[in-house]
């Protein structure tokens, strides 16, 4: 009964500042729905809704709600759309990191001969290669192990200080920064896949030389087990390097996400 009595003022405050709470809900929902860990179909929709509402309720008590002018239908629609873009753009900075891991892993899988051996990924709701699925799970574990989710949630809280409700400002600097992050995504993917790519390139060159020296050798039947075995060995031995790259890039989110917020602020 005491807890119910304590929660009544908070509910009354939400009802009093309904539009401000609605803006917070839209920003949080766009942020969490596009996140790699919980944005896929593997997480039930009810859990997502409860997470968004609970996080919005906490943020409503924490962030300073500025007085808002009377809203018209047009200003309310544009304000909600701006909040949606803020949450979506912030989550894009995190998604690019996992997309870089997927790019490098897909290249590795194709080089090893796993291009046609795909699995259904419930997180992304599409087919993905075996190596991409493996390294994607490792990336998520590393992300949680070094408290990457704390960095992301902290940036979400700070976003209300950088950008007040209905304060989204699209700028050319934001587009340039996102393009810079996209180019960095391909560079990270190359770092992830370069050990296996180089090893398999040398192996294929040696197999090509052997096929010239020994014409009777069936290159197709000989190359598949060699590339798969060598690729799996290199993937296993390069996991410490992979984890160190991920640790460095996840830690850099402390600069990436505020950089996105600064370029979206008015």
Overview of the structural elements:
The protein has 266 residues and is mostly helical. It has one domain (2-264). The chain has 10 helices and 2 strands; from the N terminus they run ααααββαααααα. The protein has helices at 2-16, 18-33, 45-62, 73-112, 130-145, 148-162, 172-213, 219-237, 239-251, 253-264, and strands at residues 118-121, 126-129. The chain has a two-stranded antiparallel ribbon. Strand 1 (118-121) and strand 2 (126-129) form a beta hairpin. Helix 4 packs antiparallel against helix 10 and helix 6 packs parallel to helix 10 (253-264). The chain starts with a helix and ends with a helix. Residues 1-7 have low confidence and may be disordered.
Describe, in short, the structure shown.
With 266 residues, the chain is mainly α. Helices cover 77% and strands 3% of the residues.
Quantity of strands, as a count: 2
Mean pLDDT: 78
Shape: elongated
**Helix coverage percent of residues?**
over 70%
**Cα distance spanning the termini:** 44 Å
Quaternary state of the chains: single chain
H/E element string? HHHHEEHHHHHH
Please outline the helices and strands.
Elements: H1 2-16, H2 18-33, H3 45-62, H4 73-112, E1 118-121, E2 126-129, H5 130-145, H6 148-162, H7 172-213, H8 219-237, H9 239-251, H10 253-264
Antiparallel strand pairs: 1-2
Helix pairs in contact: 2-3, 2-4, 4-5, 4-7, 4-10, 5-9, 6-10, 7-8, 7-10
List keywords for this structure.
266 residues; mainly alpha; two-stranded antiparallel sheet; 10 helices; 2 strands; 3% strand; elongated; disordered N terminus
